[in-house]
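so the lab meeting is tmrw and i was supposed to have these ready like two days ago... anyway. pasting both below. for each one the top line is the aa sequence and the line under it is the structure tokens. i havent really looked at them closely yet so no promises
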Amino acid sequence: MKILVANLGSTSFKYRLFDVSDETELARGAIDRIGGAESLCRTVIGSHSEECRRHVADHAAAVQICLDRLTCPDRGCLDSAADVGGIGFKAVFAGRLSGVRLVDEELLDAMERLSVIAPAHNPPYVRAMRQLQEAFPEVPLVAALETAFHETIPFEHRAYAVPWEWYTDGEIRRWGYHGASHRWVAGRTADLCGRDDLRVISCHLGGSASVCAIRDGKSVATSMGMSPQGGLPNANRVGDFDAYAIPLVMQSTGLSFEEVLQEMSVRGGLLGISGLSGDCRDLEQAAAEGHERAELALRLFEASVRSFIGSYLVLLGGLDVLVFTGGIGEHSVRVRSQVCRDLQWLGPDLCPQRNAAVRPGQEQRISTDTSQTEVWVIPANEELVVARQTADLLTSQGG
């Protein structure tokens, strides 16, 4: 079965095509600035890459361009669009409608209703899914919700201390996100260590970041909360924040409640502290040149990651594997080094030479040979997880 995995933004469409029978990636591509005067379209099929600029009206048009490229007689990898068994989406939030589900009106309505929790993610997904349902009614659409991996988290690590009916009726709880990434880490560490009874802490560190405690391949706690806003500071999102500070912010700035929320989601995080950038690469360069607030932003981020690792070490009763993944986790020698600083007594003993030698896309153990806890850099592969989940659902339903 061939599965197209879609990663959607409000004006972007990134995709990877897999043959899930042997988990081969057949193609990948991206279309940016959808709806603008000119979109950039990129496709890689095998060793052949192609790039062009053209007007792309909406996400349905973007998928049609993708399918045209994939079925091109000269360079395509599909005989026809009918070869696509389904389109899988790394969807974010639909409340109780979690797990892996066929895209239907019930799901779309829930995602629309809960867009206030994931305003940057749900609206473009709902809009694109509706467009694709209309344009390609013969192709099954499957949503693999980011919250699904965290359904195994027990009550005491998932609930807020709120009025009980908020929990039962209002769906107020720590839902957790980055589920596909943490699921990949859970499976990959089991393969690398030859065991499925591991205690793992997965650090998905990027523009959006979270830490997850994993026992026996299952999530038992995660840093993100009700929304992707909670937990670690992100590139431009504040992370954990005392809600009672909001009235004071409104009073001192004159901003409305909605404007404060907007500020917290676009001008907070590493960007807010540094006043320079939310990109860790920019901050590391600036900090090396003496930019004080860039250094403070990095220290805040590293300290927050360490705090969650410490908490999860207690929860897990020890640690077998510590993993770094995501854009920062895979590429930042500094962040990995600072997060693991002086942790030898708890298990992880980082090897500076191995840490510095990691190359982009490389899977590498970076702990010393004598470290009680293995420390790994594992490149994220969320799309393959979604392809697997999509194929499993369609196969179970006779697709």
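ok protien two:
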Amino acid sequence: MRKRVVITGMGVVSAVGNSVPEFWDSLIQGKDGAKEITAFDASAYRIKRAAEVSGLDLSAHFTARELRRLSRCDQFGLIAFREAWRSARLDQDSIDKRRVGVLLGAGSGGILSVEKYFRDVYLGKGRPSPSLLISYSLATTTDLIAIESGLKGPRSTTATVCSSSSASIGVAFDLIQMGLADIMVSGGSDSLCEVSFSGFSSLKLVDPESCKPFDKRRQGLTIGEGAGILILEELGHALRREAPILSELIGYGICADAYHLTAPEPNGEGVERVIRMALSHARVFPEEVDTINAHGTATLFNDIAETRGIKRVFGERAREIPISGIKSMIGHCLGSAGGIEAVATVLTIKNGIVPPTIHYEVPDPHCDLYYTPNHSIKKDVRVAISNSFAFGGNNVCLVFKKFSSESRSS
């Protein structure tokens, strides 16, 4: 019989909330997190807005020395991890930390700090601190979390751009199922930086107004940042310590389009394949899926490809499934997108509310499904999937289920 994997804790930092309760309240109210960029000087760019994290009292979380050494990405990851760790009651329970691992997804990582270092060097601003280079490695946040809590189990960092966090959650699930860990800290953290912002801007993939997934007027994404961390735990281990169980992760799919470095396969074949793979792995029939957290970047071709892939899997029933595009609120958080959206998917199941896709006003005949426009809806959700698709055709789909003590068949 396969080991069952449950979610026992979560933490989040985002443009719409810096804790799980604040984040969830903003999502169901349809709050837009886009604002003027302050993380770097955006005056040279045509677009100067992003879904930037704000309102964090960093001095409440870190010492002055830590703030000099930690990148923005590291700060977000550690804050979200601490919330997840506490909510899982792992700060209170005695556990074997040799059986606890960390596997995060990463995108830009600490590049913002590296940019500051080299800008200071080139402008001759004294001697910039070498500590700004510590976070050059995408694995830094992963390592810092493990070191802070003394976690000696499996440790790795996944970098598949915008699907990184979802891929990391899938691999963490595998490690628990294989018996290599009892608990895995997974998800991801990412922050704004100029190299990512300028790259998406040069590709003309950033909407100058607002992120409008699946709307005919969409012009592209809004860059976001933040962290979403989940505690994955083997069910028996969670029950023995009477941990809170938020939902169950029952399977995932991962595949590649092998089509283009930036464009998705246009007919949704890769989307279809990864969803079918995830449902098969989870032993769930398409008719059992109650809601979908869409990748929903609001770029012209991605939204069409995702819609086509969903229709290929679910047929006519696709029109009845509430689809949530929360990037309309939190922006596209790149390496941390899948982690933050996994948190939202678990909360959707736990609270029986599907968050909206905001800024949806003009239907697109090519995107003709039910995208939960502008207002959240109440719905009993037993099974939910969360999609993540990335440059290069890196596709991941996670399947979550409302927790029941009844065992699934082996």
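from a quick look at the 2nd one: The chain has twelve helices and 14 strands. The mean pLDDT is 95. will dig more after coffe
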